[in-house]
Each structure stands twice: as structure tokens, then as C-alpha cells.
Write a structure and sequence with these properties.
There is one protein chain. This protein has seven helices and seven strands. The chain is α/β, with parallel strands linked by helices. It has one domain: Rossmann fold (3-Layer(aba) Sandwich), CATH 3.40.50. It is globular. It holds the Pfam family adh_short_C2.
């Protein structure tokens, strides 16, 4: 049985990835700061095949402590896939002149620093596997911007660069790719108290050549593809319903 580790596993895209891979008969390890969300997942999945740990993966000590428990749980087995999915979901920082350094750092640490720390700790476990991969959760905002999203965009752009650097350095034993989600509706995949099912406008759906808003399941399927795609590494895969290739004019 193969094993996947997902950061930011409590809600949204991370939760969907965890459930998708467990449905494929993988063992699942999930890390998140949201203890309440992880408790729901523990109740939903068997303890023998799922491990959920509360940890702030942007902090070195927290990552080290979590991986001690991961190592014990694996009991010598390999880690086959790591998904660096953690991050601050809200990209909007407000005007640049009002952006405090500590807030900038929070965005960077939650996504980019966390990916570095988790990948570094996971390497010995990944190297046990015959076929190992890493998927970094970037964003279409790594290559195109909305106003006042400086720190989020910089963190995701850094993840893109980290992806190709890791691919060159860790290959061929470990392949490394990034996914750039576009507009993904995560409401149905939140913990119980925050769950929602928004009714999107026709104009929102029409922005996408695919004809709809993205779903977390779309991202989970892309992670599965990238793990199996043995000749794909160092790539950045847009999963955005075609939104980034459609010209939109103001009328």
C-alpha cells in the first residue's frame, strides 16, 4: 500500500486530495494547524490507514516533531508522494504601503517556507520508495496578478522556482511538479461549521472555457496524474478551466 503526505489537509483542496487518495487505497498522512478539521477526518477514516497531525508546517520545530511521529507510524515503509498544499487561502493584503513585514512573512512561511521544511524532512522517507514524487500547490497568481496580492503571488512564484530547482536536484529518483489551481470552489470541502455550497453566477462560469468553476476534486485528480506520469518533472500544470488563456475585455 502506497502512502501520501499532504500539508493543509484539513479543509478545501487538501481535504479533497486526502479523501481521493484514500479512495484509491493509499495510506494518507495529513498535516494542518486546524485541529477541529483534522478531528473530522480522523472520525471519517480508519486509524490503520490514515494519520492526521496538528502542526504549523511553516515552523521548523513543528515540522521536525511531526516527522518523528510520521517515521514511527510508517515503521520503515516508504513515503511515496508529498503534496505541499499549505498556505493562507486569502490572497488579498491591501495597499502595499500598509503591508507589515510580519504579514508578508506569514504568507511566505505558510506556503514557500513550509514546502522547503516539509520536503527537507520528507527526503529520507521518499528515497525509500521505488517511485517517489512531490507536488507543490502553486497558483495561477504565480504568473498573473490581481491588485494587492503581493505576498501571496510572491510566495507562489517562489514555489514555481523551487519546483524546477528540486526537480533538477532530486531527479531521477524523485520527480517534482507544481499545480497552479485557478478558481476552485472549496466551500463543500470545508469543515462542518464553515461548509457552504455557493450558487455561482452565469458570468462567473462563462469566464472559463470549460464552462464551470473548478472543484477540489479536479486538483486531486491532477495530483494522481502527476504521481503516475513518469516522464513529467519540473513542470507547472495550470488547472483553471482555461481561464488563463481566455481574453476578457471590460465593456
Amino acid at each position: 500500500m502506497r502512502t501520501i503526505l499532504i500539508t493543509g489537509a484539513g479543509n478545501g483542496i487538501g481535504r479533497a486530495i486526502a479523501m481521493h487518495f484514500h479512495g484509491l487505497d493509499w495510506r494518507v498522512i495529513g498535516l494542518d494547524r486546524d485541529a477541529e478539521a483534522l478531528a473530522e477526518l480522523r472520525d471519517a477514516l480508519p486509524r490503520e490507514t490514515a494519520l492526521f497531525l496538528t502542526a504549523d508546517v511553516g515552523r521548523e520545530g513543528a515540522v521536525a516533531g511531526a516527522f518523528e511521529r510520521v517515521e514511527d507510524w510508517l515503521d520503515g515503509d516508504p513515503l511515496d508522494c508529498v503534496v505541499n498544499n499549505s498556505g493562507i487561502a486569502d490572497p488579498y493584503a491591501g495597499p502595499l504601503e500598509k503591508l507589515a513585514l510580519k504579514d508578508w512573512q506569514a504568507w511566505v512561511d505558510a506556503s514557500l517556507t513550509a514546502a522547503f521544511l516539509v520536503t527537507r524532512s520528507a527526503l529520507p522517507l521518499l528515497r525509500r520508495a521505488q517511485t517517489a514524487s512531490i507536488v507543490n500547490m502553486s497558483s495561477t497568481r504565480a504568473v498573473m496578478s490581481e491588485p494587492d496580492t503581493f505576498a501571496y503571488a510572491a510566495a507562489k512564484g517562489g514555489l514555481d522556482a523551487l519546483t524546477h530547482s528540486l526537480a533538477v536536484s532530486l531527479g531521477p529518483a524523485i520527480r517534482v511538479n507544481a499545480i497552479r489551481p485557478g478558481w476552485i470552489e472549496t466551500g463543500p470541502w470545508q469543515k462542518t461549521g464553515q461548509r457552504s455550497n455557493p450558487d455561482h453566477r452565469a458570468r462567473d462560469r462563462d469566464q472559463h472555457p470549460a464552462g464551470r468553476i473548478g472543484r477540489p476534486e479536479d486538483i486531486a485528480q491532477a495530483v494522481a496524474y502527476l504521481h503516475e506520469a513518469g516522464f513529467v518533472t519540473g513542470q507547472h500544470l495550470n488547472i483553471d478551466g482555461g481561464m488563463t488563456v481566455k481574453m476578457i475585455y471590460e465593456h
